[in-house]
Each structure stands twice: as structure tokens, then as C-alpha cells.
Write a structure and sequence with these properties.
The complex is a heterodimer.
Chain A: H1 2-20, H2 33-58, H3 69-72, H4 76-80, H5 101-136, H6 138-151, H7 156-167, H8 171-195, H9 199-207, H10 212-247, H11 255-264, H12 268-296
Helix pairs in contact in A: 5-6, 5-8, 5-10, 7-8, 8-10, 9-10, 10-11, 10-12, 11-12
Chain B: E1 13-24, E2 32-43, E3 47-51, H1 58-66, E4 73-78, E5 81-82, E6 90-93, H2 105-109, H3 111-116, H4 120-133, H5 149-162, E7 167-171, H6 179-196, E8 199-204, H7 207-213, E9 216-220, E10 227-232, H8 244-274
Parallel strand pairs in B: 3-8, 3-9, 6-7, 7-8
Antiparallel strand pairs in B: 1-2, 1-4, 4-5, 9-10
Helix pairs in contact in B: 4-5, 5-6
Classes of the chains: A mainly alpha, B alpha/beta.
Chain lengths: 310, 275
Amino acid sequence: MPGDGTSAQAGRVTAGLGAAAPPPPARRWRVGPVLDRLAWGAASVGMFVLIWEVCWLVGWADPKLLPPPHVFLGDIPDQARFFNTATRWQIGMNPADGPSPYGAVAITVASTTMRVFAGLAIATLLSVTIGVAIRYWELFGKLTLPTITLLSPVSPIAWLPVAIFLFGIGNAPAIFMVVVALFFHMVLSTISQIDNVNRNFINVARTMGATKRQVYARVIIPAILPQLLIVLRLNLFASWMVVLVAETTGVGFGLGQVIMLARNTFNPSLVFFTIALIGLLGFASDWLLRQVQRRVLYWVPENGGVLRGL
Amino acid sequence: MVFDPARPISSADAVACRGVGKIWAAGTERAHEALIGIDLDVAAGEFVVLLGPSGCGKSTLLYLIAGLEPATAGEICSFGDPVERPSPDRSLIFQETSLFPWLSVGQNVAFGLAIRGDTAEARRTVAKEALARVGLAAAIDKRPDELSGGMRQRVAVARALAMRPKLLLMDEPFAALDVQTRAKMQDFLLDVSRASGASVLFVTHSIDEAIALADRVVVFTARPGRIKAIVPVAMPRPRDPFAPECVDLRRALTEALRSEVDRAFAEQEALAVTA
């Protein structure tokens, strides 16, 4: 009997609260910004993994050709064996020498990442400098822009032989490939951003007595920075793609070389393992650039939210 | 109000235009005449409003006087010196916000001083003073995107004032603001321009704005822009927009503009047909 009383009371209390308090804002699907994003990332990847695993379970995906994630991620030490960075081809080297499998994975990942960032840095520096120079000195622009436009549609693959002719094997050809893949587009996009700088900004600077150099240094460069960083982020993905192509040809070691090895030895597990690794690296480096962007471009409002109300 | 084109150019005049014309893209297929035969003087300390339909070349005239674009005909002088290039003596303020988003409010105001190479200390002092004059001293370390549209335009005015210009050129500076803010900004601008002693050449397509502000209203024709009439407004400020003189003036200006707007429309339609 007393139990009944309290439960009835409790019911009344909650009912009363519900009537008094305004309904909570509709915040379903949102936990906390960081946690939220992580959760959605996991959900997104998880969904595809699930589909894949189901396909395998049902028998649609042949595990010899499309091994599901639990197969190619299941035995990492076994996969790591293939990441061999020992320089066995060199005379006097003991084929058994070399870093441990995990060490080799780390070295492989580090060297590919280094090539990506070195290429990206060189390409950015070079293309922004050239792009600004093309608009700054008209004659220089007239002399170089047609050639740059002419070369920009050439696929990076076409530069591969050139890279090998010029730089042989090692890091240099891979970095060259990244630079050449990004350079032309980034020059063109730098120029189009310069052309799109708000006229008023330039006119204000001019009426204040700014010289051409001051207009470029104090107005045009800061004005194009936000777009440049976005271009840089997009090109980061492009450089991850190109570096793999470059590494498939005699770089010594790198993720591209592992993919090539996997192809030659018919090892789909290794292919997917490497793809997973690359995806993770690309994602991490994009996140890194986004952090840089947020620090450097403090004046650019965080985007998003505009489409949410639709 | 007949202007005598033979009137000699005086070094006391903030602006003196003689037969000024501008053809955009001259010598090409897209060439079009924006201004023809502009004769106009602006006295030191005078507030002159350029009024006309959109695209009549009022802004073009402002750009020519600022020295951002060369005139294709005639002569423009400012305080007796021919205008050949932009000068900090002639500050230009735009319709849209033109504050640099990567600089703080104070750095924006001191931009011209930084260009000139003033020390950081001097810049800060001037920025403070200029911001105080527009009533935004507290906003010195804020970022432009933290301010409202009206505040941003006040900062733009402060940035122009920081250079101690003798002439303020304003290209529809309040057009993007709501009506109430606009009225406030007009009062504020009158105070500031009186205090600084600078001449103001103010472009607008709003008749009410012209009546509220001007010592003289210069009415433009539709493209190509010519001066149709120069109307002095002798009423003391602040002006009651519903005072009989203002109502009469508004009627006269509305009439003058209507025929020009009609002409501009007819011309645009003709252009659309040929295109």
C-alpha cells in the first residue's frame, strides 16, 4: 500500500515538472562537438564495414579477392612482415638485417608522409610565389602564364618517366611528382584568387597612399590566404594520391611500393590493409591542416550550419 | 544656378572639375561613356551631395576625383593641384564594408599610418583618437566581424579621418544600413565633418538623404552622366524632413530624378533588345 502511494506521488511530480518546464530543445543526434564528430565518423566507417562483412558472410564477397576487414585487419603482425625496408639489394647487406616488422611499418609510413609534406610545402611555396609574381609583373605573367596553363591538364602520370630520368630512385622523384602534380593548378588558383580580391580593399589601400608592393603585401596576400589554405587542404589529398603512384616505381620503400608488392604477389589483404593505413593518414593530416587553418585564419568564421535548417 | 566653366580654378577649392569626361574601356568594342562635361567646384568645408539614378556615373566621378581612375577628358584639381594619383588627403569610403577582416578595428583605423611607416605607438594613439571621434573607442581591439553594419561604417569613417583628409569622398556609405541606423549615421556624419573641417562629396540615390545632408545637391542625368541641376539647400541643420521647404525640395528633386530614371529604363530596354 505505501508503495502504491509513493509511485503515484512520483508520477504526479514528474507530470507536474513536465507541464512546468518548457520542452527541451530538439538536440537529438548531437552529443558534444568533438564526441559527436567522432561518433559519426565511427558510425560512417562502421556502416561500410558492416555491409562488407555481411557480403562476406552471405558469400557475395570472395575472401580471396575482397577480404573483409576482420581478415585484413585481423592479423597485423602478419601484414607488417611485408613492410620490408631493409636495403637488401645493396652489396654486402645481409638479407636478414633490417628493422623489426613494426619498425618497418613506421619507417614506411614516415617516409611516405614526409614525401607528401615535403612535396606539398615545396609546391605551395613555389606556386604562390609564381602566382603572385605573375600578377605583380605583367611581363613575367605574359611570358609564363600560357605555358603554365598549357601544362596544367597534363596528368601527373605523364611526369613519372621524367621524374625517374631526372632524379633516378629515392625520395627526390616522389617529391618531384607531388610538386609537379600540384604546382600548375595551385598557380592558376592563386591567380584567380588574386583577381577576386575585393576591389574595395585594394582601393582603400591605394587611397591611403599604399605602393604596389604594400598593396600586395598588406592586402592581397592576407586576402587570398583563406582560399589558399582550402586549396592546400584539397591538394593534400591529391598529393597522397600522387605519392603512391610515384612510389610504385623504384623508390626503395613506401606505401606505394607495398601496394605494388601486394599486386605482384596477389595479396589482396595487404592491399586493403595499406588502403586503410593511407585513409587514416590522409584523414589525420587533413585534421592537422584544419587545426593550422583555424589558428592562422582567426578572422574567417567557422562555416557550416547554413544548410542545417533546410 | 548657372555654373561658369570659365571660372578660374582656385587653390582654395577642395575639388575643381572642368569639362571632366570618362569613357570606360575606351578604344574597345565595349567602350561606353560614363560622364560628359562635368563642371563642378566644391568649396573647402562644403558638403556636396551627388544625386542621380543608378549607373549614372556618380561613383565614377568619385573614383576620378580620388585619383583611382584617370579621366579621359577635362581636368580635375584638388586644392589647386591636379589629381594624378590617389592621395591620403582624399579619403574614399565605400558602400559595402571595406574593413580588412584580418586586422583588428584599431589596426584597420591605423592602416594608412602603417602604410606611411608611423611607429606602433603613434598608430595606436591616432587610432584611439579617431575611434573616440566616432564613438567607438571601446572597440579598438575588436575584430570587424564582431561589429554591426553601422558600427563598421563608423570605423570606416574613423579610418578615413585618421589620415586627416581635406576631402571625404563617400560612395553611398549608408545604403546597406536600415533606415533608423541610416538617420543616426547621417547626424553623426554631419557632426564629424563639421568637427574635422573636411569637405565632403557624398554620392547617394536617396533624395531624403540628399536633403538631410547637403549644402548643395548636384543632380545627375542618366548615363552618360551630366550635371542636370545644382540645387543649394540653405536650411539650418538639423532639418525637419516635413518642413515645407523640405517638402518642396523633395518634390522638385523627385521630379528632376523621375525623368532621368525613365530615360535610364528606356535605354536599358533598348540595350536588352539589341542584345
